[in-house]
Amino acid sequence: MMIHSRPRRAVAVLGALLTGLLLVLTGCATGGDGKGRPDGPRSPGGSVAGTRSPGGSAESAVPDRAAGMPVVAVGELPAQARDTLRHIDAGGPFPYPKDGAVFGNHERLLPPQPRGYYHEYTVRTPGSRDRGARRLITGDRHETYYTDDHYRTFKAVLR
Q1: Cβ atoms within 10 Å of 23's Cβ, excluding its own
Q2: What does the alpha-carbon distance between residue 84 and residue 140 come to, in Å, rounded to a whole number?
Q3: Tens digit of pLDDT for each residue in 79-101?
Q4: Measured between alpha carbons, how far apart are the two ends of the chain, in Å?
Q5: Alpha helices per DSSP H over 91-129
Q6: Whole-angstrom Cα distance, residue 13 to residue 151?
Q7: In what order do the strands lie in the sheet with 155-158?
Q8: Residues carrying an active site annotation
Q9: Residue 153 in this model has a pLDDT that exceeds 90
């Protein structure tokens, strides 16, 4: 018996579209802090990574954990990464034996957390004979990060 997950897929697509819309609206609706300076930290590309309310707390879809880090919406991830996210959300099964292993954050590019906080999952790379370089890293508070260059750089995934 085959069970189709179209409702779950539709919800994921709708969530990604709403996240993208929120990002566009937030970026267009905010002009800065009233002093000629844009709110929030800048990403390495120079664009504003998020907006801040006058009290200084994050009010956009870009969480504080991603301050200064590039971000990517789920819908902008490669199809294989979205497949891996579905496996993570479902609790498995995972195609690679090392999926779910503790990620040590030895590169110190993710926010510091105690050992065991982060876990890594392989994102299949078409044509690769091994696990390839693409990974999703999840934290205990359900934050998600994506790397396509084997931990040299990360993007915070907006979910």
Answers
A1: 17
A2: 17
A3: 999 999 999 999 999 999 999 99
A4: 31
A5: none
A6: 27
A7: 71-73, 155-158, 144-147, 135-138, 118-122, 101-103
A8: 120, 150
A9: yes
